Amino acid sequence: MSKKHRKADLVMRFFQGSKKYFLVAVLASLVTTGLNSLTPQIFRFTVDSVLGGDKYKYLSEHLWIMALMLVGVALFSGAALFLSRAYTAKAGENFAKNMRDALFSHVQRLPMEWHDRHQTGDIIQRCTSDVEVIRNFVVTQLLEVFRTVFLVAVSFGMMFSMNVKLSFIVLCFVPVVALYSTIFYRLIAGRFTTADEAEGELSTVVQENATGVRVVRAFGREKFEMERFYEKNNAFAELWIKLGTLSGLYWGIGDLITGLQVVAVIVLGAAEAVHGNISVGEFIAFASYNTTLVWPIRGLGRILSDMSKAGVSFERVDYIIGAEEEAYQDKKEYEDQSRDQGFDIGFSHVNYGYKDGKEVLSDVTFSIPQGSTLGILGGTGSGKSTIMQLLNRLYELKEGQGNITLGGKNISEIPLEWIRKNVGMVLQEPFLYSRTIKENIAASVPEASFEEIRQAAKIACIDEAIMNFPDGYDTLVGERGVTLSGGQRQRIAIARMLLQKAPIMVFDDSLSAVDSQTDSKIRKALLENRRDATVILISHRVTTLMSADKIMVLNQGSIEEMGTHQELIKQQGIYRKIYDIQMSQDDRMQMEV
Ligand SMILES: Nc1ncnc2c1ncn2[C@@H]1O[C@H](COP(=O)(O)OP(=O)(O)OP(=O)(O)O)[C@@H](O)[C@H]1O
Prior knowledge:
Layout (H helix, E strand, L loop, with lengths): L2 H12 L4 H18 L2 H13 L5 H5 L1 H46 L3 H6 L2 H8 L1 H34 L1 H48 L1 H6 L3 H53 L5 H43 L8 H7 L7 E9 L5 E10 L4 E6 L5 H8 L11 E4 L2 E2 L5 H7 E4 L10 H5 L8 H10 L3 H5 L18 H15 L3 E5 L7 H13 L5 E6 L2 H4 L4 E6 L2 E6 L1 H7 L2 H9 L2 H8 L1
Parallel strand pairs: 3-8, 3-9, 6-7, 7-8
Antiparallel strand pairs: 1-2, 1-4, 4-5, 9-10
Helix pairs in contact: 2-5, 2-8, 3-5, 3-12, 5-8, 7-9, 8-9, 8-12, 9-11, 9-12, 11-12, 17-19
């Protein structure tokens, strides 16, 4: 589908459920415009009936008819205006709501690689400010486009019916104003894009500083961050000042052109009236149509500039909506086929590099039989987390990068939803929502009973700490609630994963912030409650891994050693070295007891 068609489709999608409201709003607005354009005619006949002798004798004796018509026009036009405003608001809000819903659900399904390439502040700005710009255009300006076209047509119809010469003079001004507005539209469109991008950068700085406030304070980077913000803020303000100056210029020159238009009509109209080519009533009505036309035509510039702003914002929204989502595969269908396949994991000749192309994993081949435990040891940046992110399909292997199997089936053929339900992960830096502890643990299984939630917390050795919080499991986490330690956050994340009861459980360095004793307590509880699950433990601590069925040692993306704890100790390789460094004499004695 071409870009143009896709955009038209998108507009229609956002208008879903509000097309009828918009239609009523347009019709009501046209009725108001039509009725209002009768008013100058009523004035015309009133004036001419007062000055015009016998021709309008009846009217001059019954001026109340004109008064009644004016009241009638005001009444009906007011009612239609009300309808048009109310229905535009309905249509506009519904449009914006559809847009926000579409953006939010789309962002949820965009691949990690996409998120890596985009700044959070910019995404937030596209989902809020840009939506607002479009909403404003739909609510205030879109209707204006229809109204202006109708008004110009009706007014010119009336003017031509009264005096052709004068009408041509007014008509001459229309292309001048239209051309002038178009040039302005082109000039300003690019600048709005730059201004929007600058706003995105500004939001990113604010967002980074709000989330990273501890780091900023701890490293005394306030001054640096303030300067960074001043710089971005100055650039942003300057862009808007330039835009303001440009707008000022537009309105100033526009005023001059329309002023000339009004003067031309008054001077030539007066001359026509003196020569008897137009009656006084017609002249007044003509001048009135001319003045009525001035603003919508002048406003054309504003509509166009708002349209350009909305167009730019729509491009930015479309940029997100147009990005390709993670592949959807039918989970239900897969579940039916895969019932007895089991959960053996296999990595075969996996080579992987992120977007920068640098190889992070090279020729990684290993297997984990269902129900066993694999420990992964490796220095920072050796690729441990990458292996797990590939298993969970947070990042996808491409052609020629090897393959990963689950239950003998290539994971690229397994629906993402199925994988993420069955591969439970506790990430290195767990994310907790600003909700209650209970809700945080139950995030993976919202229907879980309180007893189940508590049982998971007990295995993760966090139940006691939670019970000591003022509201127990109902304590809020985050800014408005309790501030948790790194170890507490990790254990809540472990409880969340345990509740998921996934057949594959991955702990990505998720015991790093708890002391060795708690680490060993959690592992013991885990072993007792693991069911038949396959467990993958990633850690820098040998003690965390030594009881695993198999331990894999990674070094700069390659498997350096693989075996049981005893086998690796005998090999006298990296594992043995790390073991020797980490285990003090006391620890060893304790382990041997
Ligand atoms: N999203 C990403 N985009 C680009 N490069 C990445 C990304 N994530 C990780 N890397 C790079 O890949 C390499 C391996 O990272 P990975 O997180 O897998 O290591 P790790 O062994 O888990 O390290 P650590 O123990 O410090 O967590 C690193 O060089 C890292 O900079």
